Amino acid sequence: MAINRRSFLKLLAPSLALSSLPFPVDADDAKDAVFIVIDGFDPTIPAEFLRAFVETFLEIGVPIGLIPNSNLASETKKTTAYGFRRIFAENPDMVEPVLWLPGLKELPSYFQRRAASDAIKQMSGLLEGFDGVTRHGPVTIATDASTPSNYDGLRCLGIRNVLSLFPSPSVSSTGCAQRTVCLYGSKQLMIVDVADPAPWIEEVFAEAGWRQIVFSLAGIGQISMQDLRLRAQRVSDAIGRELSLGRRFVVLPREHARWFGADQLRFVAVRIESGTDVSSAAMAAFMDELEALEIPVTDTRPSDLESEIDLLLLPDASAAFDGGGRFIRGDTTISQAASLLANGNLMRDAVVAIGPQDYGTLHARQATLDTLGRFRQDPGTRLVDVTDFFTATTAPDPVFDLLRETRRDIIGDSDPQALTGDELLADARQAWAYFERFSIPATGLCVDTADVQAGYSWLHRELTMWDLGSLFAAVMAAHEIGLISDDDFVARSELLIKALPVVPIGELLLPSEVISADTGASLSRNFNACDTGRLLSVLRELDAYPLTQGVAVEKVAQWDLDGVVIGGHVHSVINGRPVDRFRSQCAHYTARAFRAWGIPADSPYEVADAVSKTDRDMQTLLALAGLDPLGAEPLLLEALEAGLSEPSRLLADVLFSAQRREYERSGRLICMSEAPINREPWFTYQGLNVTASEERWRVNVTSSDPRFATPEFRRAIMLVNTKAAYLWDANRPSSYSSLLVRHVRDRTRLEGIGFSPGVFVATGKGMPGYSDINTNAIVLEAISFITRGRKPRSNL
């Protein structure tokens, strides 16, 4: 989006109409805009110094933007702060307050809003008492980014214009994205460093083009008032000489937002309040008139808006985005709306409130319609209802929108389709059939994956440490449910403990990544951090289980696990070298498992302290950026084995709610996790892409072959995951989880070999004859969790 150079002078009419500006008679020929910004003043600078410098510009009619030091907000009784306030009070059409927000580009949209909201609150306090400034708030911010960025998230706070003040010989004007506009590049001068600024200014104006000039007053307390006045006079004289040539014009920064015409309309929402029975007839007549004039209006109370769209309207409030994730805007009465039609406020979004006093009589109705008519006549304004206002001024934020949707989601308690005890027991027996058929008696181990068709059988006989963790979990669950005896349980557990590998990997003794199901021999000299985290989590349960207390301590002690925790991050070891696995969905689960064995480890989900719970939740969700899609594992395994931690509870809520809402919107059953499949590339990671606005449901494969990278292929292998369905039934009992579990149990049951990994969404069919250790183990683990009252064993 760029300015139309042929038409922007027409859009500049309000600015050019200021008779005090030092334009020659042929000012319409001036093509190059100049924006002047003054910053660098703080409570240490005497108020008279600030005023002396600013007045040199005002005396020749040159408008300026002022950036106050953030410390001024807490020093409102100091003379500098008072002087700053007086400047705005006396010169509202010539001086614009500009917020300084360095580092803004590096922040996600949510935290851009939070930072800007805090700055607006500070400035509102600084300017409190000056009508027109406090009520409407700033529309321009300044930052330090050297490259373009998206600042649309700030429009909901009334921000229309962004000045990027990094040093540059040229200035570029463009849309930051869709809802805000940006000026990039500036020339900067420290007034204290230059006795005669005139040559510098002349050099700045030597070539044609727009200019953004920043004069810093930092340190001016070091020079005398007389010297300051002399430097200020030289500045204003040099600028005046340039303007007299008719090549340039000076405007306030906020005017920039108006120059984009229809691409940058301001939005004014109209909200009407009902009154008594006496005024109901007048309101009906008024609504008819509005409809005839095609003026949109919202007939609702502010409290209803807050519950529907998180928009809180408060009389005369500064725009804010609070720690609870609410958008706050000032509600301007129609009697005060004239201020929004004044030159300085023509770019401000607003919500106009109309009460019974504004339509109760014919005279009042006409006055209100006249005011609304003036808004309609402004080519830069669009009248909308409140919902459209919220949509137009609030940029999409995929992560925050996901959190908001989750919080609004209400999961009913009624579940007439819940699995009965008999059905759960039947499913447990079905899953245990896999282990009865494919276990190897000599080692206690089990085939990893089985593909058994008529006249064909293929058995994968290699086990990862993740598989071993699942095998231990299956044996415990089978005993707890009553499928195997005490003696059988103990014998199986002891065999499995004996089979755990202890091998040299690099310079450490560790469990190897893969072992043979037939012999227990190590098949790899690598160590997998994520898979071992799964194993350690289950071994902690086994070690506390009544019949096997302490059974795993000795074996775990043989592993040099503390040696793979480097800088707080649990590392894998590949080809003898440590590889950081911190940036993965399993790192939190792994960290908790290591801690359970007394080994400190960090988690990517555990973020720094935040001001509010919403801030903390957003930090957690944003930590998932760049990771594999979020699926049910290992997220819900944590719930079964140790209880959900705070960040995992949030992620579980977000994932479950998103799946359920998708079903309500599209009719597609969504239940995603990692899973093997019965075709190349054999294994997939499926789940929610938390940070994406589109393609939220992702299917990642373990191969770089382009055949598996097409949208068509990914859609074809998307699953309603069997083990995930049972995990949700265990952790989020509801009609949706029951719908999931009934869907998979009817389509993935394989006679004599357990359950298949899932049902293909595209076909509604399972995988004939194809089953695996993890699917059946986790089904058993989930059912045992349900039968013991949905509590981790550690809580019993």
Terminal Cα separation, in Å?
62 Å
Largest sheet: 7 strands, parallel, barrel
- Helical percentage: 25-40%
In CATH terms, the superfamily of the largest domain is Glycoside hydrolase 144 (GH144)
CATH names the topology of the largest domain as: Glycosyltransferase
Put simply, the count of helices is 25
Q: Give the overall shape.
A: elongated
- What is the strand content? 15-25%
Oligomer: single chain
Strand order of the largest sheet: 1-2-3-4-5-7-8
Supply the CATH architecture of the largest domain: Alpha/alpha barrel
Q: Nearest-angstrom radius of gyration? A: 34 Å
Tally of DSSP β-strands: 33
The pLDDT mean sits at: 90
* Structural class by secondary-structure content: alpha/beta
CATH class of the largest domain: Mainly Alpha
Number of domains: 3
Q: Give unreliable regions as ranges.
A: 1-27
Write up what this structure looks like.
Helix 14 runs parallel beside helix 25 and helix 23 runs parallel beside helix 25 (773-787). The protein starts with 7 loop residues before the first helix and ends in a 9-residue tail after the last helix. It is built from 25 helices and 33 strands. It is of the alpha/beta class and 796 residues long. Helix 5 (109-126) links the parallel strand 3 (95-100) and strand 4 (140-143). The longest helix is centred in the C-terminal third of the chain and has 21 residues, at 646-666. The strands form nine sheets. Strands 1-2-3-4-5-7-8 form a seven-stranded parallel β-barrel. Strands 10, 11, 12, 13, 14, 15 and 16 form a seven-stranded mixed sheet that branches. It folds into three domains: 8-262, Alpha-Beta Barrel (TIM Barrel), CATH 3.20.20; 265-393, no CATH class; 421-795, Glycoside hydrolase 144 (GH144) (Glycosyltransferase, Alpha/alpha barrel). Mean pLDDT is 90; it is low at 1-27.
